[in-house]
Design a protein that fits this description.
Blueprint: H1 12-22, E1 29-30, H2 47-59, H3 72-83, H4 88-91, E2 95-101, H5 102-117, E3 122-127, H6 133-138, E4 143-148, E5 150-151, E6 156-157, H7 159-167, E7 174-178, H8 191-204, E8 207-212, H9 221-234, E9 238-243, E10 255-261, H10 265-282, H11 289-299, H12 301-333, H13 340-343, E11 348-350, H14 355-365, E12 367-368, E13 374-376, H15 385-396
Parallel strand pairs: 1-12, 3-4, 3-7, 7-8, 8-9
Antiparallel strand pairs: 2-10, 5-6, 9-10, 11-13
The protein binds pyridoxal-5'-phosphate (PLP).
């Protein structure tokens, strides 16, 4: 059986990680992999997570199954975190939330639900988008098409072009949006653009699937969900794929959720039944540990306060690096080409470099970025800002 299998192409980002690991130059800079790093270059277990984990372990008396919906207190907390405690859709019972194995699990389950509903066969994603969106959606049998979003050479959002394309999509098409901290561009919609988008989606009968993987790392927990909440107030249906990997630092615990907004409370119940049955046939139930930690943080005011403080510290670290990096690039290049970095949000920006320049960064300057020239700002230590700017300026020449 296995002899018919063809070798798979290597994952490009894993290749960048391996090349970085093999590079012994003391000045090497790793801006490839998309994980948060503190000023010392590590991806720490958050102190609030450690506290909550100790409590979970002390309290847990059984490892019995939790059920296809996952940890229910976790789901209730995530729903509140994402939509706010007073969102009208919550009061109306139009929301259901199911715990998933990470944000990827949520995206795949959402795609399976879309496929099962048989209304949409294609999902429209931003150009560019996080590379894993395509296989996650395609894995459910759906096609993927793109809408214009960002011009990487000028560092500008292509909002008018995005609207023009969405305007032409057939009713019922699903549109994948990123709530905040857009991966890979760092370019987000502003409040007015979310409003315009909400009007278009409603009028054209398009259904948003919103990827929320960086809540709290852009402008703050509330602000990062504001656009999504606005859509949920105005539209009859939407889906949200939530990841706790970054804002709780729970990467390997595979902690996330899918939230569905339905037109009525009974319809929401039907959607929940489908989500549970889809989960059941794919992986049966999600792992509990990360969700139990998040639920313990939610339930304990001290843990919650610690988590909020730590998350804010992470956010400030990433946003605080943007201005100095943009300023150093201005000084090194003598131009304004990279000024956009200062105004963007989240961990990523796209340098807009071609593959030759990306390779030169690696080979001549020991600077590792994603193949599409995405940089993870959180990978940067302050003393590396100026050498990085000089390296980028050098490969432009
Ligand atoms: C845009 C985006 N969506 C979703 C995810 C899913 O993350 P995970 O499955 O690790 O929770 C990520 C992780 O990098 C991401 O960048």
């Amino acid at each position: 059986m296995f002899d018919v299998l063809k070798p798979q192409p290597a994952d490009a980002l894993l290749g960048v990680m391996a090349a970085f690991a093999a590079d012994k130059d003391p000045a090497r800079i790793d801006l490839g992999v998309g994980v948060f790093r503190d000023a010392g270059g590590t991806t720490p277990v958050m102190a609030a997570v450690r506290e909550a984990e100790r409590e979970v372990l002390a309290r847990q008396t059984s490892k019995v199954y939790v059920g296809a919906g996952g940890n229910r207190p976790f789901a209730a907390f995530i729903e509140e975190l994402v939509l706010g405690s007073a969102h009208p859709a919550r009061a109306a019972g139009r929301l259901v939330t199911l715990q998933t194995p990470g944000g990827c699990g949520a995206l795949r389950l959402a795609a399976d639900l879309i496929a099962r509903a048989e209304r949409a066969t294609r999902v429209s994603v931003s150009d560019p988008t996080w590379p894993n969106h395509t296989p996650l959606i395609g894995g459910a049998g759906l096609g993927v098409e793109v809408y214009p979003y960002y011009d990487a050479t000028s560092g500008t959002l292509l909002f008018d072009e995005m609207l023009e394309t969405l305007e032409r999509l057939p009713a019922g098409t699903v549109v994948l949006l990123q709530a905040s901290c857009h991966n890979p561009t760092g370019a987000d919609l502003d409040a007015g653009q979310w409003l315009t988008l909400a009007e278009l989606l409603g009028r054209r009968g398009l259904v948003p699937l919103i990827d929320l993987a960086y809540q709290g790392l852009g402008d703050g927990l509330e602000a990062d969900a504001a656009g999504l909440r606005l859509l949920a107030e105005r539209l009859p249906e939407l889906l949200v794929a939530v990841s706790c990997s970054k804002n709780f630092g729970l990467y390997r615990e595979r902690t996330g959720a899918v939230i569905a907004l339905a037109p009525t409370a009974p319809a929401a119940g039907v959607v929940m039944g489908h989500l549970q049955s889809l989960a059941r046939r794919m992986y049966s139930m999600p792992p509990d540990h990360g969700a139990a930690i998040v639920a313990a943080i939610a339930a304990n005011p001290d843990f919650r306060r610690h988590w909020l403080e730590e998350l804010e510290g992470m956010r400030l670290r990433v946003t605080g690096l943007r201005r100095p990096l943009a300023a150093a690039l201005r000084a090194a290049t003598g131009g304004t080409r990279f000024d956009f970095i200062a105004g963007q949000r989240g961990m990523f920006s796209l340098l807009g470099l071609d593959p030759v320049a990306v390779a030169a960064l690696k080979q001549r300057h020991h600077v590792y970025v994603a193949p599409d020239s995405r940089i993870n700002i959180a990978g940067l230590a302050e003393p590396q800002i100026e050498p990085l700017a000089r390296a980028i300026a050098a490969v432009l020449r």
